[in-house]
Amino acid sequence: MFRDFLKIDVSPLVWAVFRRHLIVFSRNWKVNISFNFFEPLLYLVALGIGLGAYVRPMEGLPYLNYLAPGLVASSAMFATAYECTYGTFIRMEFQKTFQAMVSTPVSMDDVIAGELLYGIFKSVVYGSVIIVVITLLGLVKSPWVLLAPPVMAVAGLLFALLSIVWTGLVPRIDNFNYFFSLIMTPLFLFSGVFFPLTGLPVLIQKAAWFSPLYHVVNLTRGLILGQVGIWLVWELLWIIAVVVLLFPFPFYLMRRLVIR
Amino acid sequence: MDVIVAENLVKEYNGFPAVRGISFRVCEGECFGFLGPNGAGKTSTVRMIYCFSPVSSGQLTVLGMDVRTQAREIKRRLGVVPQENNLDPDLKVLQNLLVYASFFRLPKNKARLTAMELLEFFGLADKAHERVDTLSGGMKRRLTIARALINKPAVLILDEPTTGLDPQARHMVWQRLRRLKEQGVTLILTTHYMEEASQLCDRLVVMDEGEILEEGEPRRLISKHIGAEILEVGFAAAREREIVRQLNGLIRGYQVVGENVFLYPHNGQELLKALQRMPFQLNHQFLRPATLEDVFLKLTGKKLQD
After folding, report:
1. Residue B3, pLDDT above cutoff 90
2. How far apart are the CA of A260 and the nearest CA of chain B, in angstroms?
3. Global pTM?
């Protein structure tokens, strides 16, 4: 039983699965990108510029500068979370794409690994698009920003794992609303995207340590603003540790769901 | 050579036995059918063959390989047409074939060539760049079969290949399948259409409730269980026992179907004459050739389709 759980049968065919997703993505990437880029831009304008005019500097920064790196992290998170909940579910349940794939030499684990790769890809692309925008706005202060895309990749893997675990546990399309309102939105609000957590009750500050987005925000903000130090490594290790811990679950859950 | 060998094959879903210890062999180059009503265990059986569902117990080898340990190698040499169309709606018609080919690691140029040939063969060449959801039901089915052939499989498995198609589309699919058989492809199909089974299958098993009831060539099964003809007669009241007793010697068996009795005559015309001499009121009478449906009815007391 436990051995089954840890036995993950992934082959190089995972790249063929990933390529299928890229073909689909390339068919309507303009629409995809512009929508995902639009929402963070709204936040940037409304909160960063509009609200920011009335807000005291945060951690010594104008509000717009404080907010921008947080939005990089959160838009990467949302892009992956949507893909690996609604996207994954639609491919599995409505389009039966997974069933078609596993009738070929592709294994179910190849399919899930392909979904994870696509989640990573989305995180990197949507995070990077925002980075480009805020660079153009002059909000990026350090060449350390070049390390942000690899960080987006690791973060993308984490959010992809979390999302597919949810998809595997509650495979009904209505339940994804709960995922976003009960998990994603609180993460979005209380992970230091909009304000430092130091003003909040101690309990919430402590709870934030368990938020994956909190660590991703710290990392991206550090790299974008050039506030680097050994503490960034600890943030990264937190993410990697959770990735390792979660890794077998989506494979196990989805295998159980699709293969009967 | 036996392409598929199953011994005491069992499939259980959470303790519910869908396939209850069946054994069968499929020979190279033949068209082998699983005939039975919905829920007979046909789909469960073929899903084990194409390594989708794990075998609960028993032995199953495909092309000489064990499904438990060599799934990828087996799948490389199979073509699968599942019951539900699962074409990729995010991709165009030709892309569907090319992406599927990439799962077999076929070289791109070769895949494109094969894909164009297949689209031609299935009358879809002019649809190559259409979206999949613009195709009709029959075209989708043909595309699904084309997709299953992209790797030039040794065995093509078709789960209810024409369910839901109109008669014209169905005949078109049958025609293509017969040509594939002529080309030497081993075909395995499940169906609950007796016409499909008798049109295509060299050999078949009749399944019901997870078990194999009979096995053989369609015509032999009919002549073994029924004979050449069936005389359907309707009586005024439930007097079949009395009537059947009086017909003893003229029939080799019978089956009560609702208000009707299906008589299996030694000679249809003689039975008709004999019936006319009897002092019973007959509501109707109808002499027709016997079919696999009648065999199934005799074996189970049920109809194949509702």
Report:
1. yes
2. 5
3. 0.92
